[in-house]
Amino acid sequence: MSLRLGDIAPDFTAETTEGTINFHEWLGNSWGMIFSHPADFTPVCTTELGRTAQLKDEFEKRGVKVIAVSVDPLDSHTEWIKDINETQKTTVNFPLIADEDRKVAQLYDMIHPNASEKATVRSVFIIGPDKKIKLTLTYPASTGRNFYEILRVIDSLQLTANYQVATPADWQEGEDCIVVPAVSTEDAMQKFPKGVNVIKPYLRTTPQPNK
Questions:
Q1: Which chain positions lie within coiled-coil regions (predicted)?
Q2: For residue 14, how far is the Cα from the chain centroid?
Q3: 166-187: b or e for each residue (b if 16 or more CB lie within 10 Å)?
């Protein structure tokens, strides 16, 4: 059965390029991102892992731990990382899970038979400090992920976890938010002292409350 938003992210113990980890222990009280790669020494994945390493400061600023998974063995990962560092002009600075037995890929439903019997699709899971899945994304093997979109979604998830707001289409950090329907306009005026703009009774906006 596939994982749904709000499910507890499956725990596991695995070998990685940074040693053996227990996933939930490794996450601690942090947010986390686990994302899969169809195989080592593949071109799109090489750019993706490099881009993730380049964005290290952005993930750290948001308190997000990043971990990748590929179904190849540890020695293959070690050699591949050399290529990533060379071609992407960076240093891979997060663990890469060796998932030869596909245990992690199966736990997270990352293998889609319609795409391939063996290789994982490009799955992304964002996990909250409560270990619950907050976001899932699945890309085909041919399409590289947009990491700016992943960071944008993390910004929205972290904001809406702490305030009774939602984020509108194409929202970016610093822009106005939507007051959730559960909050009355009267209460919203008290909760959001920066002001509430009533466009329709069900559509009310307010400046981002944590800015």
A1: none
A2: 19
A3: ebeeebeeeeebbbeeebeeee
Q: How many CA atoms lie within 13 A of 145 on its CB side?
A: 26
Which range is least confidently modeled, 40-54, 83-97, 136-150, 156-170?
A: 136-150
Tell me, yes or no, if 45 is annotated catalytic: yes
- To the nearest 10 degrees (0 to 180), the angle between helices 43-54 and 147-162 is 50
Site of tokens 């899969």: 36
pLDDT at 118 over 60: no
> Is residue 146 pLDDT above 80, yes or no?
yes
Q: CA 175 to CA 156: how far, in whole Å?
A: 11
Q: Which of 45, 110, 151, 154 is catalytic?
A: 45
* pLDDT tens-place string over residues 63-73: 999 999 998 99
Q: Are 76 and 43 in contact (CB under 8 A)?
A: no
Q: Which of 40, 61, 33 is nearest to 134 (CA)?
A: 33
